[in-house]
Design goal:
single chain, 614 residues, Rossmann fold, 6-stranded mixed β-sheet, 5-stranded parallel β-sheet, binds alpha-D-glucopyranose
Length: 614
């Protein structure tokens, strides 16, 4: 072998060793607590172990003292599960502290984990900073920003005492007719992998014992975004919770990526999906829940079921519980049937159908997280640190959300370089149902589970308020919902889009624009003025009917409470940088269309993945 080649090979080998070791997860291994846990396990009754494996929606607690008498491991507020005393920062914090104080009265005094869907800020609580939903964050391609958003979200969640956020959603939606498309960062597994890990780093902070950190939850494991159209759980639920029909290689290549990166980032809980893989419910699939997630990937934390997801496994609830717990589920998210769950699981153990080793593994994982979060440290109080309330919904937090809005905007069309607009225009006519409505602007999972139309559904700045604050004092802003009366204005701006929805209620057969929105754009055009369209949507919609009338089109996704981020782009304070995180189809005939499913087909969408005018 010629010396030069040998020399080259030696050099290459040396370089390989010089490569720094694979980045290790930021938080130390959760197994560090296993000796202490073994001690505690030996003192726990079967009832107390099963209690830890139970998470009850607080709305369904028959008696809050059940938290102590049943030694519940966790309580949650699912969608619309607000405090009885109303929706305010104080009421949420008092509710959390109230339940936690009861938990401390249990025989072993093990504190609860309290979970909420803080999926774009602490979005259940009035006055919280509401960030763009994940589809918009995907368009920023900005992992540092997503991490920062996670940090702020954790701070605002902890300001209410709550310590578990059911986020990030690392779905890789493949069919935008799915109602949860907007909860995904992208159709591209590489982008989901990167941003999912960034959100976990933000939420979980420097380590789970960080008082500003919350327990993150990678969801929904696995392939929730791969379900086939028509396999959803109901007549109108076309895709959601349906069946994924792909081979294992595809599952790993596309849908497992967000779990690899979030586990590496130290995520300490994972939520198995309602959906199925080739006919078998993920939440009862041992290969997924144990062989791959726990053994192959080395996940050391908690597998928390989705909301009553165990019920869907078998109409015989006890058999459903047996299948799910034996498959590897560690904690069940349940509502009114929580006593039944506890009784059935106890019987299953006594009948030898669920081995005690499985119970001990589940409780060990739950206690690992509680030790890691400092909840078992008697010197630390698990009650809310109300000093964090000072920054709840603060201008500083809102400025970060505003930056996220700026970076999420994608400029799709800009004829004659209409955008940026002049802030000195004599008159701008604003139109559209969504122009002055935080409900449209924030989308689902905002104060209400399904979101709710309305100008002021929480603290924030609508587009209409933002434009009035942005233009010069000589500029006249006029408004009509349908675009009429725009004659004489220098430019018309139509703010249109999807009404809010969440989960299966967003499944759609057709993604056409609302006819009223199309009419609004056409009315502006009839006034003989240039027309800008701003689109609020949880996914790409079919734009064909307005392409001739709109001189500029900005995709704003579901930007959240800080509408000024839109006017920053519209008036040129921030040059658009957003790039599509999903392929934008020309027609419904092309759907589903994405960068992963074009084998052999011509990829000819209206706008390609990654498109965005600068
Ligand atoms: C919902 C969603 C899940 C959420 C859970 C608790 O049905 O599927 O994303 O975290 O229930 O609200």
């Amino acid at each position: 072998m010629k010396p030069s080649r040998l020399f080259f090979l030696v050099l290459l080998a040396a370089a390989a060793f010089a490569v720094p070791p694979k980045s290790h997860s930021r938080s130390k291994s959760l197994t560090a607590y296993d000796d202490q846990i073994k001690q505690l396990l030996s003192r726990m009754t079967l009832d107390e172990k099963i209690g830890q494996m139970t998470q009850v929606d607080q709305h369904y607690l028959k008696d809050p003292n059940d938290i102590a008498t049943l030694a519940l491991g966790s309580v949650l507020s699912g969608g619309d599960s607000d405090p009885a005393d109303g929706n305010s920062l104080e009421a949420w914090t008092d509710m959390y502290d109230g339940y936690q104080k009861i938990a401390l009265k249990s025989r072993l005094g093990i504190p609860i984990l309290y979970g909420v869907d803080a999926v774009h800020g602490h979005n259940n609580v009035l006055g919280a900073t509401i960030f763009p939903h994940d589809i918009g964050l995907g368009c920023t391609r900005d992992a540092d920003l997503v991490e920062k958003i996670g940090q702020i979200t954790a701070q605002e969640v902890r300001a209410t005492g709550i310590n578990w956020a059911f986020a990030p959603c690392v779905a890789v939606p493949q069919d935008i007719r799915w109602g949860r498309t907007y909860e995904g960062f992208s159709e591209d597994p590489k982008l989901v992998k990167e941003l999912g890990a960034a959100e976990v780093r933000g939420l979980q902070g420097t380590g789970l014992d960080d008082p500003d950190a919350v327990l993150a939850c990678a969801k929904h494991y696995v392939g929730d975004g791969a379900t086939v159209y028509g396999t959803g759980t109901g007549p109108n639920h076309l895709l959601d919770q349906g069946d994924m029909r792909i081979d294992e290689a595809t599952l790993r290549k596309i849908h497992l990526q967000g779990y690899l990166s979030t586990i590496d980032a130290g995520v300490a809980s994972v939520m198995p999906s309602y959906s199925s893989w080739n006919g078998l419910k993920d939440s009862a699939n041992k290969k997924l829940l144990t062989d791959i997630l726990k053994q192959e990937l080395g996940f050391e934390g908690i597998e928390i079921s989705d909301y009553n997801a165990i019920d869907q496994i078998n109409k015989d609830y006890k058999q459903a519980i047996e299948a799910s717990i034996n498959a590897g589920m560690d904690m069940a998210m349940v509502t009114g049937q929580y006593r039944q769950y506890i009784q059935d699981l106890k019987e299953l153990v006594q009948e030898g159908k669920v081995p005690m080793s499985r119970i001990d593994d589940a409780v060990t994982r739950i206690l690992r997280v509680k030790y890691a979060m400092g909840l078992m440290d008697k010197k630390r109080s698990p009650l809310a640190d109300r000093s964090l309330q000072a920054t709840f919904g603060s201008p500083e937090h809102r400025n970060v959300a505003r930056q996220a809005v700026r970076e999420s905007m994608v400029l799709l069309v800009n004829k004659h370089k209409l955008v940026p607009l002049s802030r000195d225009a004599a008159r701008i006519h604003v139109a559209g149902a969504a122009a002055d409505d935080l409900g449209y602007q924030c989308g689902g999972w905002t104060i209400d589970w399904q979101g709710k139309l309305g100008r002021v559904t929480t603290g924030g700045t609508t587009f209409f308020a933002a434009i009035q604050q942005t233009v010069s004092k000589n500029t006249k802003i006029t408004y009509s919902k349908d675009g009429s009366g725009a004659e004489g204005a220098e430019v018309g701006v139509a703010v249109i889009g999807e009404k809010p929805y969440a989960e299966m209620f967003g499944d759609r057969k057709d993604l056409s624009l609302d006819p009223a929105d199309i009419a609004t754009v056409k009315n502006l055009k009839k006034a003989g003025i240039p027309v800008v369209v701003i689109l609020y949507s949880g996914r790409p919609l079919i734009l064909d009917p307005i392409l001739n009338d709109a001189d500029a089109i900005l995709a704003a996704w579901l930007p959240g409470s800080e509408g000024e981020g839109i006017t920053d782009v519209l008036f040129g304070d921030y040059a658009p940088t957003g790039k599509l995180s999903f392929t934008w189809p020309r027609t419904m005939a092309q759907v589903p269309i994405n960068i992963n499913n074009q084998k052999g087909k011509k990829y000819d969408p209206l706008f390609k993945y990654g498109y965005g005018l600068k």
